[in-house]
UniProtKB/TrEMBL annotation:
Spans through the membrane: 26-45, 170-193, 214-239, 259-282, 291-311, 344-369
Keywords recorded for this protein, A-Z: Membrane, Transmembrane, Transmembrane helix
Location of the ABC-2 type transporter transmembrane domain: 31-365
Compartments where located: Membrane
Keyword Transcription belongs to the record: no
InterPro entries noted in UniProt: ABC2_TM
Name the UniProt record assigns to this protein: ABC-2 type transporter transmembrane domain-containing protein
Membrane-topology annotation of the record: Multi-pass membrane protein
Protein species of origin: Terrabacter lapilli
Pfam families listed in its UniProt record: ABC2_membrane_3
Length: 395
């Protein structure tokens, strides 16, 4: 039996068991409902563009309604107009919610709530019309008034710590997805290994398979289930956002997508095997959580660095250090790269260091896994494993 064939047998066995479990079915259903709700609920709450109502005595002047409607179109809201017989009726309409703003001569009535920026827009329109009337009286021609009206305010250039906030948010999303996948899947990996050791199933598997085959097959089966659940969560949200033209979904180039998948693969591989090694150290399933606590703390620390330090200032010394250090790079470098503030050599160096650390973690986890599975009846300490390894090598 080849190494790959044995690994595939363990992988298939683990995948079937997890897909049949009630926990997988319940969690997947909840994730699907959550994803659908994330698309539908905001639309239900928002309802559509806001509508503001302007009340006037008689029909609103054509110049006023044209100016206000143009401003409303630029602002993404709608404007309605109502007519009232006199000033008291206009005031009453605003007071009882039938109108947002009421205009009578040079007096403007404003609703106490839900007025937003509409009163300011109406006031600016009135000032502009009155200014145009006065300038016409001073002798300005229609062309000169048009030139004055064409003056635009200065262009606003938003200066932020990130050059591209949309891509930075995507980088943050990569770190968040990896963080959640590791926390949930890592615990599953540790519990699976601990259960197989406690129930002696691992001894049966090791009688015909190599420890590395059992380890890799187990990790891959859990990783596949985690990927399936992430797709169940992400695909409906992405499809809904794309169909509705949501602004939080920026256009991404193929290199960005490929880089995000690379970081996810490296980050998951880096920590998943450490979770498996931690599960092999315990003799009781209930002790698995405490055994992998150092790995969990490391993941949480890396995620907090990404959120607090890197997202706040991607170019700081601490951000650069966190994005180059292999144990935090998968959670922090995607954010720096999305911010557009990473030299290419730093990205390549970070990928290389993380890949080497990943190979080192796989070797370390395989060594711990192989030596710890044969020790039963008590919890195993790391120092004991490496003392045993040195003794065996001397013999």
């Amino acid at each position: 039996m080849s190494w790959w064939h044995g690994t595939a047998l363990v992988y298939g066995r683990g995948l079937r068991e997890q897909l049949r479990s009630k926990t997988f079915k319940v969690v997947t259903l909840l994730l699907l409902l959550l994803s659908i709700a994330a698309v539908v609920v905001p639309k239900l709450i928002a309802g559509g563009p806001a509508t503001y109502t302007l009340a006037t005595v008689g029909p609103a002047p054509a110049a006023l309604s044209t100016t206000v409607s143009a401003a409303a179109k630029d602002g993404g809201f709608r404007t309605a107009y109502v007519e009232r017989a006199d000033e008291a009726a206009v005031k009453d309409a605003v007071q009882h919610g039938d109108a947002t703003v009421g205009i009578v001569g040079n007096r403007m009535y404003v609703a106490e709530r839900n007025a937003g920026a509409f009163p300011g827009i109406v006031a600016q329109a009135l000032v502009r019309l009155e200014t145009a009337r006065m300038l016409t009286g001073f002798g300005l021609t229609g062309d000169q008034l048009s030139q004055l009206g064409s003056i635009r305010p200065p262009q606003q250039v938003i200066v932020a710590p990130t050059q591209n906030q949309g891509r930075a948010n995507v980088g943050f999303a990569v770190g968040l997805v990896l963080y959640l996948a590791l926390l949930f899947s890592g615990q599953v990996i540790a519990m699976t290994v601990a259960t197989e050791k406690a129930t002696r199933i691992s001894e049966v598997l090791l009688a015909i398979l190599r420890p590395s085959q059992v380890l890799v097959g187990t990790v891959l089966s859990v990783a596949t289930v985690a990927t399936m659940q992430l797709l169940v969560l992400a695909v409906p949200m992405l499809v809904g956002a794309s169909a509705t033209g949501s602004s939080w979904l920026p256009a991404l180039a193929a290199p960005d997508v490929a880089l995000a998948l690379t970081w996810f693969f490296l980050g998951f591989s880096l920590f998943a095997f450490l979770y498996a090694a931690g599960g092999a150290l315990v003799d009781k399933v209930t002790e698995a959580g405490s055994a992998v606590l150092p790995v969990t703390v490391l993941i949480i620390s890396g995620y907090l660095l990404g959120v607090v330090v890197v997202l706040g200032n991607p170019s700081s010394v601490w951000s650069v250090a966190a994005s180059l250090f292999p144990l935090t790079a998968p959670l922090t470098m995607p954010i720096r790269w999305g911010a557009g503030d990473v030299p290419v050599y730093q990205l390549v160096l970070s990928l290389l260091l993380t890949a080497l650390a990943c190979l080192g973690c796989i070797w370390l986890a395989s060594t711990i896994y192989r030596r710890a599975l044969v020790i039963t009846g008590r919890r195993v300490h790391l120092a004991e494993l490496f003392r045993r390894g040195k003794a065996s090598s001397r013999r």
